[in-house]
Design brief:
Distance between the termini: 54 Å
Order of helices and strands: HHHHHHHH
Helix content: over 70%
Structural class: mainly alpha
Shape: elongated
Radius of gyration: 24 Å
Largest sheet: none
Amino acid sequence: MTKKANIMAEKLNTIRAGVLGSNDGILTVVGVLFSVGAATTNQFTILLAGLADLLACALSMASGEYASVSSQADAQKVVVVDEKKRIKKQPDQVQQDIYQFYYDQGLTEVTAHKIAHELMHKIPLETILKVKYDMTLGHYVSPWSAAFSSLICASLGGMLPLAAMYLAPLQWQFLATIGATIVAVALTGFLSAKLGQGLPKRAISRNIIIGLITIAIHYGIGMLF
């Protein structure tokens, strides 16, 4: 994996954490706001419930991302240790794996053998990690960047519907919160698609549909109780 590819992989991992955090922050806060709002009109109670959920959600998402990505990084380090042992104990098998990779890319047997032989004598560990796992030696996914991305995005995402519910006049607070939620999830979808070089329209539509379904479910639950 090239340096550029490494940067892109790390960038996509951070974006993924941010999108998950933002969506979770928006939708869990909206769920609490509509559930509590359906049961009481007391603005302070609604605000307190929303803030408590926002804090819990942000911390939960950040800690979850840190644990998840740390496990992924640990797994990458284990792979490095295992391949070091294989190079010492089974060098012929490692060279065969390298040869097979280049042969499968369309090179002739002679050329693939020459490349495998040369790389095996110069940079065996770096090569086997690249061809077998698409990894770069010494480069592991960062749990801290994922955790901070999730924490910040979850906090910012949940603030918009919370502010709309609290600041809007009583008779308009639900419509204002729905509007704020649609704007928030649409913005999350747009930014994630742009940063990740995806499809903005599809991401926006998907996020809006999920947001509206979440609102309907939680409002229904609030009305039942």
